[in-house]
Amino acid sequence: MMNSNDLAYIDENLRIIRERCAEAADKYRSPDDNIRIMAVTKTVAPEAVNHAVELGIDLLGENRVQEYLSKADFYDKSAEVQFIGHLQTNKVKYIINSVSMIQSVDSLKLGQEISRLAVKDGRTMDILCEVNIGGEDSKSGIAPSELKELMDGLSELEGIRIRGLMTIPPPSDSDIFLGRMKELYDSISSGYKGLDTLSMGMTHDYAEAIRYGSTLVRIGTGLFGARDYSR
Ligand SMILES: *Cc1c(COP(=O)(O)O)cnc(C)c1O
């Protein structure tokens, strides 16, 4: 069993993250801008996740359906959970009842399945469209040139509400792509009601992402340390 002494590195990491976020927000954003910090939990033991929640983290990001299902019972339920990983249509049913948002919608087909299940359950699911801003073959997400068509299609569906955009920019030149994402977000914002979320910024670029208008930074390594995929 871990005790909170073993987890003290998380206190220190979170202190640094909060400080850097506040610095970037002071410098580049208006005082009433809300910027949320999400703790990304992949490969992290539930004890460590719960320790972050005790320290005030109120938003968790899950990547993998299987891993999430195996850990969810052990989580402190006071934090909100959002899904941020690539999601296969046939897996939506496993997560839709326990997450408050699906950030990784990049096809109409996925949106249709979320809509179908949400309507069946009499609820509305918040979603973000994931954009492949760097046009990388290895990444999921919709191409910027196809975003409007996707959003128009999703807007017709019942039981889902588009709240904004999410992206993972290429690790090199990330500031160029963060800037492009902000432009894209601003350019579509006038056309759709209720957009309030631009989810971008990870451990290596969260301060930059705040500079470019992020409202939600997703941090794994910087909070919990390097991931151990062997466990
Ligand atoms: C893993 C992951 C993160 C966090 O990445 P770090 O570099 O560890 O901060 C953020 N967003 C998504 C979608 C991820 O898969």
Q: What would you say the CATH architecture is?
A: Alpha-Beta Barrel
Shape: globular
Taking Cα atoms only, what radius of gyration do you get, to the nearest Å?
17 Å
Q: Runs with pLDDT <50, length 5+?
A: none
Please give the number of β-strands: 8
Structural class: alpha/beta
Instruction: Report helical residue fraction.
Output: 25-40%
Oligomeric status of the shown chains? Answer: single chain
Terminal Cα separation, in Å?
Answer: 15 Å
Please report which band the strand proportion falls in: under 5%, 5-15%, 15-25%, 25-35%, 35-45% or over 45%: 15-25%
Ligand set: pyridoxal-5'-phosphate
Average the pLDDT over all residues and give the rounded result: 96
Number of domains: 1
Order of helices and strands: HEHEHEHEHEHEHEHEH
The order of strands across the largest sheet is: 7-6-5-4-3-2-1-8
Total DSSP helices = 9
CATH topology: TIM Barrel
> What is the CATH superfamily label?
Alanine racemase
Described by strand count, sense and barrel closure, the largest sheet is:
8 strands, parallel
Protein name: Pyridoxal phosphate homeostasis protein
Domain Alanine racemase N-terminal: 10-227
Keywords: Pyridoxal phosphate
Modified residues (N6-(pyridoxal phosphate)lysine): 42
